[in-house]
Amino acid sequence: MSSFGRIFRISTFGESHCPGVGVVVDGVPSRLSLSAEDIQRQLDRRRPGGNKLGTERNEADQVQILSGIENGLTLGTPIGMLVNNKDQRPGDYGSMSQVPRPSHADFTYQQKYGIHASSGGGRSSARETIGRVAAGAIAEKYLLETYGIEIVAWVSSVGCHDADNIDMNTITRSHVDANEIRCPDSLAAEKMTAEIVAAREAKDSIGGVVSCVCRHLPAGLGEPVFDRLEAKLAHAMLSLPATKGFEIGSGFAGARMRGSVHNDPFVKKGNRLGTTTNHSGGVQGGISNGEPVYFQVAFKPPATIGQEQQTVNFSGEETILAAKGRHDPCVVPRAIPIVETMAALVIADLVMIQKIRE
């Protein structure tokens, strides 16, 4: 489905090479100060053509707000937003229309719907995430202004290169955006950049991991048992194109620990209870405990590469595919605002659900 959320609810629309993509956002509180500039900041961070590490497709991705705002304030009614596609080149995909790209969604969309978008991957393209980012930028502003909630994501690995010594309590988006790779560890950033450049020069691609921290969440967010906070975050992150893994807190490393080491003892922190460690990742029993919520998302290497690959067409006839078009050799630098805004959508929705109980 193309809708997400229960109260703060979004529905995205559009394909990679159609005239435009966008979103309808329902449930935004009235009288929230909001402008196109508030939304554009995150769209600028995810837009293609921004640097040498991404796709050569160059889109301005200027948002148009169609409804739901008057005189700079939200009306409480659905907010419609549109971003026009201006640098689409469907002709680049003509020779590939009858050949499902290996590890891409061409084959599965064809099997499910009996038809698939012949250019750019259609709805499976990362172009679809524009609507999520635009909607999530609204959620971010609401959360920051109402609750002081901060959400920061960064590139923590590319290939076999990992970032070290990242302080989740102090990292800011300015730290993250200090280099093109969006990794605040400068030494690791250099190695990651070289890895992506090498993959591009070899007409290949490379995967990576995005880490994210959400600070200043109140305790009590999350709806056990099926809508736990970590379950909703996993749902949001694994709905993103190219994602293959999600872990929160200690994640899979926690499976190697004993409870005496993994447990987070409680202490008094000012006027609330807190924990001395945070292996739980800010979530216990599916509910936020007031500590920072942190998680990681694994992104696979982009499926569309320029190298020749032995495969078959939709009729089963052997062929060689060397994909054309403009594609990211690694998606994680541009995935940063997408992860942040999807996290904001989850938290905003759970905040509103919790308010019903008050």
What would the keywords be for this entry?
alpha+beta, 358 residues, globular, five-stranded antiparallel sheet, 8 helices, Chorismate synthase, AroC fold
Describe the model:
- The relative contact order is 0.18.
- This protein has one domain: Chorismate synthase, AroC fold, CATH 3.60.150.10.
- It has a five-stranded antiparallel sheet with strand order 1-2-3-7-4, covered by helices on one side. The chain has a five-stranded antiparallel sheet with strand order 9-8-10-16-11. A two-stranded antiparallel ribbon has the order 5-6.
- Helices cover 27% and strands 22% of the residues.
- With 358 residues, the protein is an alpha+beta fold.
Describe the secondary structure blueprint for this structure.
Blueprint: E1 3-4, E2 9-13, E3 20-26, H1 36-46, E4 63-65, E5 69-70, E6 73-74, E7 79-84, H2 106-113, H3 129-147, E8 150-158, E9 161-162, H4 173-176, H5 186-201, E10 208-215, H6 229-238, E11 243-248, H7 259-262, E12 266-269, E13 272-275, E14 283-284, E15 287-288, E16 293-299, E17 309-312, E18 318-321, H8 332-357
Helix pairs in contact: 1-3, 1-8, 3-8, 6-8
Task: Give a short overview.
The protein is α+β, with helices and mostly antiparallel strands and 358 residues long. It has a single domain, classed as Chorismate synthase, AroC fold (4-Layer Sandwich), CATH 3.60.150.10.
